[in-house]
Model the fold of this input.
Amino acid sequence: MALVARLVSATIPGQQVALVRFATGALVIASTVGLLRLNLRPQRWGWLILRGVFGGAAVLLYFQCIERIGVGVATLLNYTAPVWSLTFAWLFLRERPHRHAGVALILTMAGVALVTKGRAGSWRLGTWEMVGVLSAVFSGMAITSIRAARKPDPGGRPSESSWTVFASFTLFGSLITLPTVLTPFGIWVAPTPREWLLLALCGLLSAAAQLLMTSSLGRLTAVGLGIINQNTVVLTLAGGWLFFHEAASARTVVGALLAIAGVLWSVVAERAGPA
Done:
């Protein structure tokens, strides 16, 4: 999905790509509700609203970063979200982080700093690198909201289905991104048939990935999901280097490895049981 977004963002603004992504998700939900007789009645309104607002904002910032700093670095920054979700889970879900979480944060931030140094020759985060980090913070809150919505409730309230969570993400994501492609905040660029095909492909891949991820959060531990998600970073960095000739200095590679190690450290430290 990220690589297709990078390809089409050469001619279509990132915020417009994000909007079409959400619109495609809405079409998937609309076409599936009647077919599968889905029950989209919300049970946990607060968490669904937080998931939609923070998730939509995270995607908007992420796609804009893909357009401006490249798919590899944008994905690396966005996928530091598990480090931030540790903090939000502690604050809102009363899940006290492991003592090693601080080490994970240091490793991750050191890796991000090295990647930035490798790109710009300066230790100072550029504007769009900071936007990429902010997208990770928002994504961390969105992930925490999904976990809260999907986990069993001690009071007996039913958990949200993966489709309901996805519907909230699509609804609020569309509302957040729509103003960015309309005057006075943005402009709609009329896509060519080829660009429409790429936009549709990006949206369908995104919808499939979101449904699979949300479903897995109801069954997998955060450890398993966090480790699996880092494959996205590795594959996207490789795809950016291979297909789009994005910069890959030694410092950038070392920084990427450090950031990935920090995220892996954070999800392993979050493990609750001995298995």
In short: The chain has eleven helices and no strands. The first helix runs from residue 2 to 8.
